[in-house]
Specification:
This protein has about 240 residues and is α/β, with parallel strands linked by helices. It contains nine helices and nine strands. The structure holds adenosine-5-diphosphoribose. Adenosine-5-diphosphoribose (APR) binds near residues 28, 95 and 180.
Length: about 240
């Protein structure tokens, strides 16, 4: 069934969330072991936190950068690259900022929420390597605050990314969600947009998600890495 859908699709779009990265050792946000457990993300990953809670803001991102410094994409990323060569996988829209899709050579990737692998000055936009956070230096030569190049709560997404994701979602005839709770907008709009434009919607997520009711197929309680391996074996 799923294998036939992949083989017969002309425009496959993959949409990933933090669940795509957990098997590489990167904690997600909202599952039982997620980093938001018991925390309000607005207190940490927001423009307000950057202004009023700077020490904890920097510490939170420095820790995430350290985790990312020692991880590698798991086999599921390689499988997505293989699908890109053998089937009509046209794009990967990701909410993840860890850069694992890029590290695995997946392409083209549409990083909706930016990247934690780079920093820029909040005032003059000058870019910096994330080494600066390890060295404890957060002040730009212009005097501005150096922050990660991720989209914080309270910030809008880059229009170019939004437009690319919108075009891809409208063209998709198969839209596959891998590892997202689908609770954050506007990212969670794209599966709906794909469905509205005639795509088949497949949601692969350990926990149930709010858009399960509009999906053609839902796969819960299964690790994404295992799912991708099983499907690849039957393709
Ligand atoms: N296999 C399958 N599903 C998994 C796995 C796995 N190995 N690991 C985690 N999951 C599922 C969890 O059940 C959870 O529902 O992935 C989902 C991840 O959901 P979230 O933690 O909410 O992550 P995400 O949907 O990407 O969050 C969206 O919120 O905090 C912001 O900007 C941040 O991009 C992020 C956005």
């Amino acid at each position: 069934m799923i294998g036939d859908m992949i083989k017969s699709s002309k425009h496959i779009v993959i949409f990933t969330g933090a669940g795509m990265s957990t098997e590489s050792g990167v904690p997600d946000f909202r599952s039982d072991t997620g980093i938001w457990k018991g925390r309000n993300p607005e207190e940490l990953a927001s423009v307000a936190a950057m202004d009023t809670n700077r020490r904890e803001f920097v510490e939170f991102y420095r820790k995430r950068m350290e985790i990312l410094g020692n991880i590698k994409p798991h086999i599921g990323y390689q499988i997505l690259s293989n699908w890109g060569e053998r089937y009509n996988l046209k794009s990967i829209i990701t909410q993840n900022t860890d850069g694992l899709h890029e590290q695995a050579g997946n392409q083209p990737v549409i990083p909706l929420h930016g990247t934690i692998q780079k920093l820029h000055c909040h005032n003059c936009q000058k870019t910096y390597s994330n080494e600066r956070y390890y060295q404890g230096e957060y002040v730009c030569s212009c005097g501005g605050f150096i922050r990660p190049s991720v989209v914080l709560f309270g910030e809008s997404l880059d229009n170019k990314m939004l437009k690319m994701a919108q075009q891809e979602s409208q063209k998709a005839d198969l839209f596959i969600v891998l590892g997202s709770s689908l609770v954050v907008s506007p990212a969670n709009m794209f599966p709906i947009l794909a469905k509205e434009h005639g795509a088949k919607l497949l949601i692969v997520n350990h926990d149930s998600a709010p858009l399960d009711s509009i999906a053609d197929i839902v796969v819960n309680d299964t690790k994404i890495g295992d799912f991708l391996k099983v499907v690849s074996d039957i393709l």
